[in-house]
Amino acid sequence: PVSRHAVLPSREAARGRLHIPGQARVVLLYGEIDARKGAALLVEAAATAACSKQIHVLLAGRYWGPRELLKSDAWQSLAAQGRIHTVNNFIDDEHEKLVLAAADCMWVGYTDFYGVSGVMALAGRYAIPVLASEYGLIGHFAEKYELGAIIDPRNQSSIVVALNRLANEPAYFVRAGSNGVSVYQRHNPIELQRVVTEIVERSIADFVN
User: Fold this and answer.
1) CA-wise closest residue to 165 among 136, 116, 132
2) Residues 120, 130: contact at Cβ < 8 Å?
3) Which SS3 state, helix, strand or coil, does residue 197 take?
4) Which of 104, 177, 179, 203 has its CA 20 to 30 A from that of 125?
C-alpha cells in the first residue's frame, strides 16, 4: 500500500462530514481560489452534458475569483444536481485532512502560471493524482512523472475528456497517485529547487540558441 505523509480520515468519514456521496468522483480545487486557478473552467466543463454525472467538484479555500461564477448557469446546474461542494474559508489542519481524504483528484489546471505548485506537491505526498495544465513546470512534472491527466485548461473538451477518464479509469489514477508519492517523498525542497533551476536554465539556453 502507498504510504502517506500523514494520517487522513477514511474517505467515507470525510465525505460524510462534507455531504459528498460515496460513489462520486471528486475533483478538488484547493487553496486561495482566484481566476488564474481556473475555477470557472473546471465548473463549466463539469456542467456540460458530455461530462459524467459521477464527477463532483470540491472548492476548498477562500474564493477570490469572479463573483459572476457563483451565479452562472454552470454553477447553478451543478448545485441543483448536488455536484458542487464548497468550503469557502481559511482551511485549518482538520479541514485540510477532510478535503484531501474526500478527493479522487487534485485540479492544477491553472492558467498564466508557470512555476512550481505547492498544491501539486501536497497532492503528491498524499497519493492524490492531478488534472494538470500542460503549461510550465506543472505540465513538465505531471508529464515526466505520470502524475495524472494533462489538459489544456483553455480547451473545454480537453477538460471534459480528462474528467470522464477520472470517472471511467480509476486504476489509471490510482497509479498516478502512487507515482506522486515516490516523486515528492524523494524530492526534498532543496532537490526540487535544483531540478527547477536546471529546467529553467535549459529552457533559456534553448530559447537563446
Assistant:
1) 132
2) yes
3) helix
4) 203
Q: How far apart are CA 33 and CA 50, in angstroms?
A: 25
Q: Report CA dihedral (123, 75, 12, 18) to the nearest 10 degrees.
A: 100
Contact 61, 91 (CB under 8 A): yes
Cα–Cα–Cα angle for 133, 46, 132, rounded to 5 degrees: 15
Q: Are 84 and 78 in contact (CB under 8 A)?
A: yes
pLDDT of amino acid 1: 34
Length of the chain: 209
Question: In which residue are the cell numbers 478527493 written?
Answer: 103
Write the pLDDT tens digit of every residue in 64-81. Answer: 766 788 889 999 999 999
- Low-confidence spans in the chain with pLDDT less than 70: 1-6, 65-66, 186-209
Alpha carbons 116 and 138: distance in angstroms, whole number: 6
Alpha-carbon gap, residue 104 to 60, rounded angstroms = 14
* Predicted model pTM: 0.85
For 148, the enclosing helix (H) or strand (E) is strand 148-151
Where would I find the beta strands (DSSP E) of 47-127?
A: 55-60, 84-87, 105-108
Q: What is the pLDDT of residue 3?
A: 43
Q: Which run of H or E residues covers position 132?
A: strand 130-133
pLDDT, residue 88, reads 84
DSSP string, 5-67: SS----HHHHHHHHT--TT-EEEEEESSB-GGGTHHHHHHHHHSTTS-TTEEEEEES-B-S-G
Query: What is the distance, to the nearest Å, from the Cα of residue 107 to the centroid of all Cα atoms in its chain?
Result: 2
For the record, the C-alpha cell of 20 comes out as 459528498
